[in-house]
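Records of this kind hold a single protein each, on a pair of labelled lines. With that in mind, the following record should read easily:
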Amino acid sequence: MNILVTGGTGYIGSHTVVELINAGHNVEILDNLFNSKIEVLDIIEELTGVKPKFHQVDLLDRPAMEKVFEGSNFDAVIHFAGLKAVGESVEQPLKYYDNNVAGTVNLLNAMQNHGVKKIVFSSSATVYGDPGVVSYTEDLPTGQNIPSPYGKTKYMIEEILKDVAFADPEFSVTLLRYFNPVGAHRSGKLGENPNGRPNNLMPIVMKVATGEIEKLSIYGNDYDTKDGTCIRDYIHVVDLAKGHLAAIDHIKNGVSIYNLGSGKGTSVLEMVAAFEKASGRPLPYVFAERRAGDLPEFFANPKKAADELGWKTELTIDDAMADTLRYLDGLSA
C-alpha cells in the first residue's frame, strides 16, 4: 500500500514507519518537525535501506496539505501528528484544540478531496476518562471525566472520524487506543528524544540518568496500589508499531476500535527498579504531591486486538529498559 504517515518522524511514528517499510509498504511522511528531528529520516534509511519521501508541512496549512495529496496516490493514512503535552494543554487549551482537532479536519478534507478512504488514528486510553474499572475494554463509555484538553482532543477526533465513516459507508476508520509507550529500537538508533522538557516517564528517567535532571519526581506514593505509586500499562514501542502494521493490514469499512497494551500493570517504582537493574546504578527520585486527574491504576484488556488483528505484545519491560539504555548510549556517544 501507499501510506501517508503524519507525525512520521516522531517517537511512535518513526518506529511505525520502520515496520511498514520492512513489511513492503511504500511510505511518505508528513511532519512539521515541531517535536522531532529531520535526522530521523537518515536513521530510518539506515534501518530499512529506504529513505521515505518527506513533506515538511503543518496540518493547519490547508493549501500545503492539498499539494501533498495532489502529488501522490495514497491508499491510506496513519495519523500520529498532534501536540501531546498534557500539562501544556491545560495551560493552553486553544492551542491544542486548534492544532489537534482543526488540523485533523484539514487532513480529512484533503483525504476526501482526493478519494483516500482509509485512516488509522493514534488515539489514547485517556478517552475512557475514569470508567470506574482498572481493566479497560473497548466497549467502555468514552468522553466523561477526561482530565485534560489533550485527552479531550483525542476523544473529539474519534467522534469526528465516526461521523465521517457514518456519512460515507466506504470510509474505513481504525481507532487505536494505546497506553504508555516505552523503549527504543533494538539497534539503539531510534528512540524517544523530545524537543524541550519531556513529559513522559522514560525521557525524564533518561535525563536523570545522564544528570540533566537531578531527580525523578514521582507524583504520589499513597495510592491504593501494591507500593503506593500509580500503576500503568507500559508497552514497548516496537510492539506498538507492529500494532499499527496489523491495523493497516486488517482495515475494513466502518469503524474498528482496539486497545493496544500488554494487559499488565507496572507501578512507577517497579519501572524505577527495572531501570536500575538494567543500568546497574541507582536512579535518584523523590516523592511529590499527587497530580490532579491521575488515576491509581489502569491497564488494557488487549483480547480484541489479539482475536481480530492477530496482534499481541512480545517484548517486556526488561527489553524496553535494555533498548532505552542502548539508545541513551548512542545519544551520549
Remarks:
- Residues 93-113 form the longest helix (21 residues).
- The domain at 2-181+235-261 is CATH 3.40.50.720 (Rossmann fold).
- The chain has a mean pLDDT of 96.
- The two ends are 37 Å apart (CA to CA).
